TrEMBL record, chains A, B:
CDD domains referenced in this protein's UniProt entry, alphabetically: ProRS_core_prok
Native organism taxonomy: Bacteria, Bacillati, Actinomycetota, Actinomycetes, Micrococcales
Keyword Transferase on entry: no
Record's comment describing the protein's domains: Consists of three domains: the N-terminal catalytic domain, the editing domain and the C-terminal anticodon-binding domain.
UniProt source species: Naasia lichenicola
InterPro entries: aa-tRNA-synt_IIb (IPR002314), aa-tRNA-synth_II (IPR006195), aa-tRNA-synth_II/BPL/LPL (IPR045864), Anticodon-bd (IPR004154), Anticodon-bd_dom_sf (IPR036621), Pro-tRNA-ligase_IIa (IPR002316), Pro-tRNA-synth_IIa_bac-type (IPR004500), Pro-tRNA-Synthase_IIa_type1 (IPR023717)
Pfam families xref list: HGTP_anticodon, tRNA-synt_2b, tRNA_edit
Aminoacyl-transfer RNA synthetases class-II family profile domain sequence ranges: 48-489
Name of the protein this chain belongs to: Proline--tRNA ligase
Chain's gene name: proS
Localisation: Cytoplasm
UniProt GO molecular function: aminoacyl-tRNA deacylase activity; ATP binding; proline-tRNA ligase activity
Role: Catalyzes the attachment of proline to tRNA(Pro) in a two-step reaction: proline is first activated by ATP to form Pro-AMP and then transferred to the acceptor end of tRNA(Pro). As ProRS can inadvertently accommodate and process non-cognate amino acids such as alanine and cysteine, to avoid such errors it has two additional distinct editing activities against alanine. One activity is designated as 'pretransfer' editing and involves the tRNA(Pro)-independent hydrolysis of activated Ala-AMP.
GO cellular component: cytosol
Catalytic activity: tRNA(Pro) + L-proline + ATP = L-prolyl-tRNA(Pro) + AMP + diphosphate
Length: 592, 592
């Protein structure tokens, strides 16, 4: 039976909701697909639920092709498994925690690695049982600090999460590839542009990880891409390390007065004025900037660490979070400086005439980590650890060492890709899928072992694969909308055809109802705008707003045996004869 | 493609899980359908999820027939709407509450009346928009004190909840009937026996309510049924009130000594010894028992109330909970008696020679409520409010009054049905569905009004209709199991056919695979036990445990062109020729 718009639980709105920042959010609310219940928490109206079910169907079909089996876990889970892997603590404020009436701790699960691991441990015990990939489509919870952009960053959202279990690393590679391939097919079917980028395995604690990013100006993530094909999100980008330079013949360091040099630029200006170079002017890239960060460790302790990086670079706190996880990172504050008298604020450097200042072996004992560009033999202008004094010609590897390198400098357009494929561009994107090789971390922590061919217990290696259902739906809406409303790809449109009957002639409504019934009979989903007292203009506006890909207008032309086919995306209207309309429309819908 | 048992994520267990009290729980765990995650919280394995999806499909189809439209609400909801209707408090310990990172209060919704009301208020504004019935199939949460019996009383469970919206009472009646009819069709399709009983509208605050109970000895509810067709759960049962009796000629009350009468029986014995009746012996039914209850009101206050009821009856605390809701009820404790010196424990009665003792107008001021059988003119033996003394011939309406009647006495087999349809029997049952006429309570509280035909704002009247998805699944399992395992009705079986290939002949496995493929091609879901190294005995045992209704055995007989059809329910095995097996099996499955 066709769905009659006069009966459908929907109301279209002419006004944008006040809290909606992006197109998809505005349109999904205005077109009556979703309604906000709380920040980042939405109810789904019939139209929205239809689209959501279709996205789920696409995912289920491709999971079946990939040989993954569906299960379903609860959203409410006990603390213990997450305690064992340390994630109960690591998630910080990012998850919802609660107690039951007996005072036992629970969480609303943000992801399910632990309990999937335990389930497989419960059921399986032999290498013969593996490989196994199981998945669920389930509502997840994250207590986001800033739920935003409608469905894009929700606090309750639907995800497909899959987990693979293998005995060998090669097995994991194969399982990983099956999911990765399935994701490519899913995004192709959703019509969602994507880039696969190397990602940091992050809090998941894995070994290899790739993100599927959808390039979009509203994206929260930044990723880099080289003409030669390198892609990575900025957290995973690694610096192309220059060769070390021989020290021979490099002049000794010279301390000089540098009053009134609060910024790198004033220091560079002073250097150019006082000690001009013959070949070129000094630039910020010739200075070594020493940035003091404070790490808040899980055990509550606070550690200062100094990052030495070229003065033309800033520390990217998101990269730093990844580099130092699970610790939290922030800029050092006044109290930190007061407590570390060895650091002369504004004039910090690794070296002073009396000895090393930075590094775990130095007088301060503060860890000193270098940007990978600061290779041995590079010479720097940097602080001399004396108020109003800097030093020229301080050579890495000769005058100072470090506790290692760290990837925390902000990535810039033009930076060389680490694989030699040329300079990178920076783009905005949103994560639409994520594939992880977790390795043995979870299986180890939770004791998931199986007997191998020789009867020996071996720890299982795992993968974890996530794809957002509701987020992807929103991104499809975002990517396909125009100023008039939603434009759904056929694969996930709430209906295949939207029939609009106009005017007041009863014959028109009868013909429209007959065509709708005919189409439903051959398996085409029809939304039938049968509202008798609504003007054609309002009906057309609603049709454009709702975004069903094929619209059929039945009105005055019917007397001459003609109706109109209206393509929502192109806007093109084509008159077609009513007598074989069903056939013609079916061809249009099925693309045959 | 048929599902191969060698690949399916399942393990059957020979041992019953230690925590499983009832058959369905034991078998669903042993057959690999579900796994416990926490008390009352389960994960669903592939077999379980298939059955669950089929139950959902039955419900969705019947909701469509009833004209209900599907939506989906979040499980995590803000406190405010529940605060307005008072349910945030009323639920007491029965719900999960939590705070987000900003300290805002949320709950995991146990039911969604408030937000459905608000959604309709948000979208609709005219009588022309109504009637409307919308529903969801969604995971609900209740923090049960004693989660038990596997899926029967879970803390996270799936429900279909529907809500109807009408302008008129007649409209509500019609919407209610549509859902009620749908429930009857659903239970018929699930093959689940049911009784529709009058129910107390209870915490939902409505005006009319019926429960669908599945009669089962493991049920938590008790209901009554008369031969004449009256049904009610005991909470909703009402007493057939006897006629009042004239006072004329009834003797005056006499106080008598009654030492050592700690029980009703000792009191009756004493009465028969000291003041024997001419016509018959005194019985417990001639005594008036005065039971002191303590009500804990929502505002935290504690009120004592005394119930006067025939001495052969006990107070049923579940009926008392309903009678006094939203207050909680418990027996009065020692402290209560200490604080109310007017009550002479063991000798409490409404009357003393010096005046009335019970009732809001009496010396104690304690509310006194009577069982409806204590009509005016009835004469009682009861406490005299003096230690070791009782009174004879205390006449209701003459010697004492009350603050009204109350339905808290335990119902007994043989009690007359209130509609005059004869004595009732008591049976155990479990609630499998509930239909409520909420009336205007929620719409009133949350301001859901629409314009009527005259342009006047009127408050909408609502219904609420719940049916448990996971609970019903468990009850179907429970009602159909035998000592060998599960026995699914075809409508919700995880597969239509379970093909078992036995022995080691490759030809057998090839033929089985061919038959499986053939059946799948004509739309029959097949589970194919293709495990090469498992004995026939184990395979048959697994088939019986898993409970697919039609089992096909392919083994040695194949050489003679014969295979076996095995009906799981009857146990009957029928040899059939392999050459037209697919056709024969299809007929069996489709019941044609």
């Amino acid at each position: 039976m066709p769905t009659r718009l006069s009966q459908l639980f929907v109301r279209t709105l002419r006004e944008d909701p006040v809290d909606a920042e992006i197109i998809s959010h505005r349109l999904l609310v205005r077109a009556g697909y979703i309604r906000r219940q709380a920040p980042g928490i939405f109810a789904w109206l019939p139209l929205g639920l239809r689209v959501r079910s279709k996205v789920e169907k696409v995912i289920r079909e491709e999971m079946a092709v990939a040989g993954a089996q569906e299960v379903l876990f609860p959203g409410l889970l006990p603390r213990e498994p997450y305690e064992i892997t340390g994630r109960w603590e690591e998630y910080g404020d990012g998850i919802f925690r609660l107690k039951d009436r007996k005072g036992a701790d629970y969480l609303l699960a943000p992801t399910h690695e632990e309990v999937f691991t335990l389930l497989v441990k419960d059921l399986y015990g032999s290498y013969k049982d593996l490989p196994l990939t199981i998945f669920q489509i389930q509502d997840k919870y994250r207590d986001e600090a800033r739920p935003r952009a409608g469905l894009l960053r929700g606090r309750e959202f639907s995800m497909k999460d899959a987990y693979s279990f293998d005995v060998t690393d090669e097995g994991l590679d194969a399982s990983y590839q099956l999911q990765r391939d399935a994701y490519e097919r899913i995004f192709a079917r959703l019509g969602l542009e994507y880039v696969i980028v190397a990602a940091d395995a992050g809090a998941m604690g894995g070994s290899k990880s790739e993100e599927f990013l959808h390039p979009t100006p509203i994206g929260e993530d930044t990723f880099v891409r080289s003409a030669g094909g390198y892609t990575a999100n900025v957290e995973a980008f690694t610096t192309l390390v220059p060769d070390a330079i021989p020290f021979d013949g490099l002049p000794e360091p010279t301390v000089f007065d540098s009053p009134n040099t609060p910024t790198i630029q004033t220091l560079v200006d002073l250097a150019n004025a006082e000690q001009p170079r013959a070949d070129r002017a000094w630039t910020a890239a010739d200075t070594l900037k020493n940035v003091v960060l404070a790490l808040k460790h899980l055990d509550g302790s606070r550690e200062l660490v100094v990052i030495g990086l070229p003065g033309d670079r800033d520390v990217d706190l998101k990269r730093a979070e990844v580099a130092f996880q699970p610790a939290e990172v922030e800029a050092a504050n006044e109290t930190d400086f007061v407590g570390n008298a060895g650091l002369v604020k504004g004039y910090i450097g690794p070296w002073s005439a009396t000895g090393l200042i930075l590094g775990s072996e130095s007088s301060t004992g503060i860890r000193f980590l270098l940007d990978p560009r600061v290779v041995d033999g590079t010479s720097w202008i940097t602080g001399a650890n004396i108020d109003q004094k800097h030093v020229f010609g301080l050579v890495a590897g000769r005058d100072f060492g470090s506790d290692g390198t760290v990837e925390v400098a902000a990535v810039r357009a033009g930076d060389p890709a680490p694989d030699g494929s040329g300079p990178v561009e920076l783009e905005r994107g949103t994560e639409i899928g994520h594939v992880f090789q977790l390795g043995r971390k979870y299986a180890e922590a939770l004791g998931l072992k199986v007997l191998d061919e020789n009867g020996k217990l071996v720890t299982v290696t795992m993968g974890s694969y996530g794809i957002g259902v509701t987020r992807n739906l929103a991104l499809v809406a975002e990517a396909n909308a125009d100023e008039k409303g939603l434009v759904w790809p056929r694969e996930i449109a709430p209906f295949d055809v939207h029939i609009v009957a106009t005017g007041r002639e009863e014959a028109v409504y009868t013909a429209a109802a007959r065509l709708a019934a005919e189409l439903e009979l051959i398996g085409i989903d029809v939304l039938f705008d049968d509202r008798p007292k609504v003007s054609p203009g309002v009906k057309f506006g609603d049709a454009e707003l709702l975004g069903v890909p094929t619209i059929v207008i039945i009105g005055r032309g019917l007397a001459d045996g003609e109706i109109e086919l209206w393509d929502r995306r192109s806007g093109e209207r084509t008159p077609i004869p009513v007598h074989d309309a069903a056939q013609r429309i079916a061809t249009e819908v099925r693309g045959a």
